[in-house]
Structures are given as structure tokens and as C-alpha cells.
């Protein structure tokens, strides 16, 4: 049996396909030139008519525009629904988180509420260096409340019935000097437990630069964001 390579196989296929192609052309275009011209003219006229109806007709373009607007409107509606859902979901989530943060940070003199005007009975100021009268540790004031603001459980533990009056006195948030090795980094104490120290510049605490930019000889200088909260200190 003779061997047929790829080139020979391709030539045989082309020859075989030529017969039905010739038959189709002869049937479609006719057997003479006059018939071929007539059929060609009809094809050109039909194609032009179809083109004008599809692309040169105002009605066709109006239909296309309606279809496009319909699809666009559907996409917009779906998009708006998704957007509304996302806003609702993340808005609710953010609101809840924000409420919790606001509630937590209103305790222990951490509220961002501006302390103005400053009551006359607030004796001490943010930036002053203090010593605890009982425990002896030193530190620096970073905030104050006109009275104790803390969770009720903390207040009950801190102030038993015999010391209930202290809850209504000014309280101060303190960054405790690490050099004292007290075991705590912050404290929230009433005014009666504080003694002010002047001339003690060095208070070691990892958060000092977040609250203060320097020392002026009598107290630490507040960062701008802290000064906005305590404008009269």
C-alpha cells in the first residue's frame, strides 16, 4: 500500500472539496454570466437594505437604545441594591464599633470631650509631674475628669461605702514612671492622693512622646491634639 504523507493528504482533500464547491457556485450563481450578474445585484440590494434597516434607521437605533437602557437600568438597580446593602451592613457594624469605642474611651479621663471651661476646683493640669501620697510612685498627668468616670464594677471595687464621696471628686489619669518599678503603667486616682513635683523632668514611659513634645522646666508640653482637649491647662 503506497505511503501518503501530510502534503498529499491535504491536496486530496482540496480536490474532493472542489466538486461540492463548484456545484454550489453553479447552482447559486447560475450557469452563465447574465444570471450571475442578476443574482449578484440581488445580493447587493438585499445586503444594502438589511444594512440600512439595521444601522441607518432611526427606529432600529431607538430599539437598540431602549434595549441598552433596559439592561443598564437593570444593572443599576442591582448595583444600587448591592450598594445599599453594603452601606447598611458596614454602617451598622461601624456604628456599633464606634459606640463601643466611644463608651470605652469615655472612661478613665480618655474622653476626647474638650475640657472647657476648666472648673476652678480642678487644682492640677495635664503635663505636671506628680507623686502618689500613699504608694510613692511618680508620674505625669495626661488627663482629668471633674469626677470619676469608670465602669460601675471598678468604682464599687475602688470605693467601698466608706469612700463613696471620693467618686464625686476630680480624678486624674497618670502615666507611671517606669523607673519606680511599680508594676503598673497607668493609674486613675483622685485628687487627694496627688502631690505635685517641680523640677523633675525625666519620666520614663513608652507613651510619653505620644502625649508630650518636650519639657518647659515646670511641666511637660502637650502635643497639639492633647492641647485641643485641655486648652486651659
Any key phrases for this structure?
233 residues; alpha+beta; five-stranded antiparallel beta sheet; two-stranded antiparallel sheet; 6 helices; rod-shaped
Q: What does the model show?
A:
The protein has a domain at 128-229. The chain contains 6 helices and 7 strands; from the N terminus they run αααββαβββαββα. The longest helix has 47 residues, at 58-104. Helices cover 48% and strands 15% of the residues. A 5-stranded antiparallel beta sheet has the order 4-3-2-1-5, with no helix packed on it. Strands 6-7 form a two-stranded antiparallel sheet. It has 233 residues and is of the alpha+beta class.
SSE ordering: HHHEEHEEEHEEH
Class by alpha and beta content = alpha+beta
Q: Assess the beta-strand content as a share of residues.
A: 5-15%
The averaged pLDDT comes out at: 77
Amino acid at each position: 500500500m503506497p505511503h501518503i504523507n501530510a502534503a498529499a493528504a491535504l491536496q486530496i482533500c482540496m480536490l474532493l472539496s472542489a466538486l461540492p464547491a463548484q456545484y454550489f457556485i453553479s447552482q447559486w450563481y447560475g450557469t452563465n454570466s447574465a444570471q450571475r450578474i442578476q443574482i449578484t445585484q440581488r445580493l447587493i440590494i438585499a445586503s444594502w437594505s438589511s444594512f440600512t434597516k439595521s444601522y441607518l434607521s432611526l427606529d432600529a437605533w431607538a430599539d437598540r437604545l431602549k434595549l441598552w437602557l433596559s439592561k443598564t437600568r437593570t444593572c443599576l438597580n442591582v448595583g444600587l441594591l448591592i450598594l445599599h446593602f453594603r452601606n447598611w451592613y458596614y454602617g451598622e457594624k461601624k456604628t456599633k464599633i464606634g459606640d463601643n469605642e466611644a463608651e470605652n474611651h469615655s472612661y478613665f479621663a480618655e474622653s476626647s470631650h474638650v475640657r472647657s471651661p476648666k472648673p476652678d476646683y480642678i487644682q492640677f493640669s495635664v503635663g505636671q509631674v506628680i507623686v502618689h501620697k500613699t504608694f510613692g510612685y511618680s508620674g505625669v498627668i495626661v488627663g482629668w475628669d471633674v469626677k470619676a468616670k469608670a465602669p460601675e464594677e471598678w468604682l464599687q471595687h475602688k470605693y467601698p461605702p466608706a469612700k463613696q464621696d471620693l467618686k464625686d471628686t476630680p480624678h486624674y489619669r497618670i502615666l507611671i514612671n517606669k523607673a519606680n518599678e511599680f508594676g503598673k503603667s497607668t493609674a486613675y486616682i483622685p485628687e487627694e492622693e496627688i502631690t505635685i513635683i517641680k523640677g523633675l523632668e525625666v519620666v520614663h514611659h513608652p507613651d510619653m512622646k505620644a502625649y508630650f513634645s518636650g519639657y518647659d522646666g515646670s511641666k511637660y508640653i502637650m502635643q497639639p491634639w492633647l492641647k485641643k482637649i485641655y486648652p486651659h491647662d
